[in-house]
Amino acid sequence: xxxxxxxxxxxxxxxxxxxxxxxxxxxxxxxxxxxxxxxxxxxxxxxxxxxxxxxxxxxxxxxxxxxxxxxxxxxxxxxxxxxxxxxxxxxxxxxxxxxxxxxxxxxxxxxxxxxxxxxxxxxxxxxxxxxxxxxxxxxxxxxxxxxxxxxxxxxxxxxxxxxxxxxxxxxxxxxxxxxxxxxxxxxxxxxxxxxxxxxxxxxxxxxxxxxxxxxxx
Length: 217
Fold this sequence. Notes:
Blueprint: E1 4-6, H1 18-23, E2 47-51, E3 65-74, E4 79-89, E5 92-98, E6 104-111, E7 114-119, E8 124-127, H2 130-137, H3 144-150, E9 161-165, E10 171-176, E11 179-187, E12 197-202, E13 205-216
Antiparallel strand pairs: 1-8, 2-9, 3-4, 3-13, 4-5, 5-6, 6-7, 7-8, 9-10, 10-11, 11-12, 12-13
C-alpha cells in the first residue's frame, strides 16, 4: 500500500469532529433493512448466471451519473452513517461524504493521476486506488472500481461475476471481487430503471446505500 500525505488544500470543507459522525449513527436506523441476502422463497425461481470478464476492446465504461443518497457503514470496529453526493464521469469521480446533520466528513476524487482524499480538517492523502486509501484514512474500504457498475444494477466487465436473478430476470444480487451486492427491491430488467437501495458485504464490512436522487448524464 502506498499512501502519501499531501499539503492541506484550499477546499471548502468545514472542519468537523470525526467523533460526531460516530455519535449520530443510531439516528439512521432506517437503513437497517434496506437490503438483504436473497433467499429462495416460494414462487421465486432464483437462478445464478456466471459471467466471465470481457476482452479490453469489448469493455463499456460505466455510464455517467450524478446522485444524492444515504450511507451506512458497519464492521467489527465501527458503525457510522450519513449522506453522500457522487458525480461519476468516465474520466473522474467526486464523492462527498457528510454527517446526517450535513457537516462534511471527506471528499474523495479520482482522475488519471490516482485517488485523493481530503478530510474535514483539510488534510489531503493520495493513493493509487480508492480501496486502500479509504481503508487507511476512514477505516473502511470503498470498492469504487466495482461500485460504479453495481450502483447501476449491473456487474463490472473487468472481472468474473455471478448474477442472481429472479424468475423475471430481475437482478437480486451480484457477487464479484469478494463482494456480495444485494438489491432491495430487485433491479428490474427494463432499460433505464436504476437501483433504489443496495447493500455491499465483504467479510465483516457491510455498506448500505439508499439513492434518493438519480441523474444520468
